[in-house]
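Practice problem: predict the structure.
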Amino acid sequence: AVTSLGEGAWSEELTVASVTSLYPGAPRELAVTAVASRSFGVGWRMVDDPQSENVLRYVLEVTGGRNATTTFITLSHTDCIVPGNGPCYATIDQTAFAELETNTTYTLGLRALNVYGASVASQVTSVTTLAGVPDLVGSPAVSSVMQTSMAVSWIAPASNGDPLVMYRVWT
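Answer:
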């Protein structure tokens, strides 16, 4: 402590260790692979240093879609240290991410988690899923039945990113 008369004696020394120094390092080289209409793959690496050890899981942050929402997907990989086990890969499909849509762009970021907390996010990347085949056509309804013709109607299916060009009807 200091007054106008001078400086007082020092008290005991206190050492504080920051727990943030124990957080894992950020995942690196986040890349998209194997893009399809209702799935995509991601790959990443971890630097071989003490901060990257003991990762319990990874969390993929996915932003985008029809409602521009953010979803967090837990990936259970733990062995992604280079040169140890090499890069990790995960497939993201509708089992892992129910809101996954066709012909849609998503922004991706990845964090590693250990017992102390989460790393900073990886560099972000993006993926655009491919267009897909149309959904199932709604149940047909028949009206105006004549001797040689009839009127048939149905609810149009979702086109899933590619315009509908025709319907096939069998009698």
